[in-house]
Amino acid sequence: MIAPSSPSGTLGSAGPDGGPSRPVPERRARGPRGAAAPLATGAAVAAAVVYVGLVDPNRPGHFLVCPLLALTGLACPGCGGLRATHDLVHLDLAGAWSMNPLWVLVAPLLVGLWSVWLVRAWQGRSGPSLPPAVAWTGLVLLVAFGVLRNVPGLVEWLGPVPS
Length: 163
What we know:
Blueprint: E1 2-5, E2 11-13, H1 36-54, H2 67-72, H3 81-89, H4 93-99, H5 101-122, H6 132-148, H7 155-158
Antiparallel strand pairs: 1-2
Helix pairs in contact: 1-3, 1-5, 3-4, 4-5
C-alpha cells in the first residue's frame, strides 16, 4: 500500500497498522565529509585572521573606517576589533584589551563553539544549538557595551584607544 504524498511532495510509507510510519533518523556523513562546513568556516576565518595579523590595521589605508565612527564620532561595539585581533595574533593581550575588551572576551568563546561544532560534525552529529535566551543576552550585552563605551567617563576603559 502506498501512503498519500506528504506535504513535502515525497511518498511516505505506511506503518504496520496502515498508519503513518515513524520518521527515519537522518544519517549524517562522518569524518571530513561531515565536517565540511565547520572546516570551510575555520579555513576562511583563519585566512582572515592571518591577513589581519600580517597587515597592521593601525596604519591608515589598509582597512575601511567604521562608518558610524566616521559619521558620528561614536564607537560601535566592533570598533577596534581589527586592531584587537592584530594584537591578539601578536600575543599583545593588553593592547588588544585597550582596543576592544568585548572582542577579547568573545573571541575565545567563538573558537570554543566552533571546536564543538567541528567535533560534533566529525562524529556525524548535528551542531550545537544554543537556547534563544543566550542570543538575547548576547544582543543586550552588545548594545550595552556599545552605549557604555561612548560614555565620556568610560571611554578610556571601554573605547578604542586612538592610534
